């Protein structure tokens, strides 16, 4: 029986039959995922081999991992990180920066995305409004922490000279076409960054942190909305450096930024706009990357072309006043186009997508994987992962296919964060809502949000194997490897987010008291 036929049998014939078919076709072990039985790896060689024994979906209030894997909590919300600073709330993106090329000692950038229902733990309800805003603003942005593996365990280095918080109050320079443009109120710097979701790492060792759902907090705090929704660059090794918002990369609900190079050395940055019916973008720099220039390469993010994808035509449409004159009917300056990237994209015919979240470039064949989380407007509750193929990353044309589809038949739902290992296997972390859809609706069989391993080639290409299950009502975000791929960092975001009484939280992870968003290091690879 072919792989496909067997999978279809498993999907439609149920658990008992699947187990029988598994045995009959010589599959050695059966792992249960979301009520469907799936075969674990056969002993195939090379990439695509499943390097762990998959776990079953779980509703435990813990980070559950396969046998042989362990985790260390490196930093949790409120922890002292050094220099008098504290670790922020709801962590997301993690990016590891080795110190002296070490895979056991480095700096970790961590995004702090939003406070949301977590406000219940941040301050008592009778706190004056101004003080509430101050606390919220400090808890967002990012943390830079120094971390080290000692005696087999990861820990935070106290009193690090690198320890730093970037918050919703840190002054940040604008670069690129919208700097000083009337569309941002004529300013060249703005106050703070928040809604920092995912992001990426530049080729010159700085972090790109993406501002996602900034709209609500910007309104509540009386901020100018055009100052948010950008990609922010931070030099983690220089505590005095001023972060930059690169307006050439457009303004929308940025999920992440995956950087690669075209064949002729131009920078290419792929980006998703995580909202229902929003779009998939890429930026191509005008200039070429020069490794000898180090951090000066940051200037490349100031000039170039921002494109948006039209899937019907397989075409990248330039959001550029000169290259797309149709934009002139609505916008006078390139700054204005970039500030209103969503509107400009729609004017040119960009394809609406089902919440384009994380994008990653395959390390071997350079194809581009995009997670579409879900879109209840179209009955797409489970999401899927698309794979784009271009002749060159700077090309204006592409083809695409559906690489994997969420649902009970595949064992995962709502793919959000993606991460490749160097063999080209995809690690996928899911973001199902933890509201009533999880308790009694479509997401019930999947239990807590989990992490999955999906080979991109070999006999298990496109099949999901569950690697992790997070604490109650959390989402595991921001996965990142150490260079030796022996440690996987993960940010556990919003555990216990459905809590209504702080004295009776729905999760007590990780320290047995109240739920605390925290960054963990997973060992055992
Ligand atoms: Fe912050 Fe799109 O997840
Ligand atoms: Ca996300
Ligand atoms: Ca990612
Ligand atoms: Ca998400």
Automatic annotation (TrEMBL):
Pfam families per the UniProt record, alphabetical: PhoX
UniProt cross-references to SUPFAM superfamilies, sorted A to Z: Calcium-dependent phosphotriesterase
Superkingdom to which the source organism belongs: Bacteria
Biological source species: Polycladomyces abyssicola
InterPro entries named in the record: PhoX, TAT_signal, TAT_signal_bac_arc
Protein name (Swiss-Prot/TrEMBL): DUF839 domain-containing protein
């Amino acid at each position: 029986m072919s792989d496909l036929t067997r999978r279809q049998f498993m999907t439609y014939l149920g658990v008992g039959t699947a187990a029988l078919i598994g045995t009959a076709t010589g599959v050695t072990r059966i792992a249960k995922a979301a009520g469907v039985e799936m075969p674990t790896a056969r002993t195939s060689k090379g990439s695509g081999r499943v390097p762990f024994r998959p776990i079953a979906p779980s509703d435990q209030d813990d980070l559950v991992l396969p046998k042989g894997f362990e985790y260390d909590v490196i930093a949790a919300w409120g922890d002292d990180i050094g220099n008098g600073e504290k670790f922020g709330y709801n962590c997301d993106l993690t990016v590891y920066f080795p110190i002296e090329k070490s895979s056991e000692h480095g700096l970790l950038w961590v995004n702090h995305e939003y406070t949301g229902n977590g406000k219940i733990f941040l301050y008592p309800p009778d706190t004056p409004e101004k003080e509430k805003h101050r606390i919220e603003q400090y808890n967002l942005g990012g943390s830079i922490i120094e971390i080290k593996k000692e005696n087999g365990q990861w820990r935070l280095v106290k009193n690090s000279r690198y320890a730093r918080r970037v918050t919703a109050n840190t002054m940040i320079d604008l670069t690129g076409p919208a700097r000083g443009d009337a569309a941002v109120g004529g300013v060249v710097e703005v106050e703070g960054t928040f809604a920092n979701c995912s992001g990426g790492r530049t080729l010159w060792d700085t972090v790109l942190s993406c501002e996602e759902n900034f709209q609500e907090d910007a309104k509540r705090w009386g901020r100018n909305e055009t100052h948010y929704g950008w990609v922010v660059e931070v030099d983690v090794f220089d505590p005095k450096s001023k972060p930059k918002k690169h307006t050439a990369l457009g303004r929308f609900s940025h999920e992440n930024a995956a950087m690669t190079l075209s064949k002729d050395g131009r920078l290419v940055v792929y980006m998703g706009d995580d909202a229902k019916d929003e779009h998939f973008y890429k930026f191509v720099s005008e200039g070429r990357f020069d490794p000898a220039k180090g951090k000066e390469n940051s200037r490349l993010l100031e000039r170039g072309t921002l494109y948006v994808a039209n899937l019907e035509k397989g075409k990248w449409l330039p959001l550029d006043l000169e290259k797309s004159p149709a934009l002139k009917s609505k916008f006078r300056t390139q700054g204005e186009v970039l500030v209103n990237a969503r509107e400009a994209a729609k004017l040119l015919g960009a394809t609406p997508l089902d919440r384009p979240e994380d994008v990653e470039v395959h390390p071997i064949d350079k194809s581009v994987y995009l997670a579409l989380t879900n879109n209840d407007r179209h009955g797409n509750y489970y999401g899927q992962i698309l794979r784009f193929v271009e002749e060159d990353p700077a090309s204006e044309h592409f083809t695409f296919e559906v690489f994997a589809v969420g649902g009970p038949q595949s064992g995962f739902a709502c793919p959000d964060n993606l991460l490749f290992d160097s063999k080209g296997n995809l690690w996928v972390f899911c973001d199902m809502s933890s509201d009533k859809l999880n308790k009694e609706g479509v997401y019930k069989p999947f239990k807590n949000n989990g992490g999955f391993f999906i080979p991109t080639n070999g006999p298990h290409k496109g099949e999901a194997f569950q690697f992790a299950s997070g604490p109650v009502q959390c989402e595991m975000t921001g996965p990142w490897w150490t260079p030796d791929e022996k440690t996987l960092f993960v940010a556990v975001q919003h555990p216990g987010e459905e809590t209504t009484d702080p004295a009776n939280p729905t999760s007590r992870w990780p320290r047995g008291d109240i739920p605390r968003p925290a960054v963990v290091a997973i060992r055992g690879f």
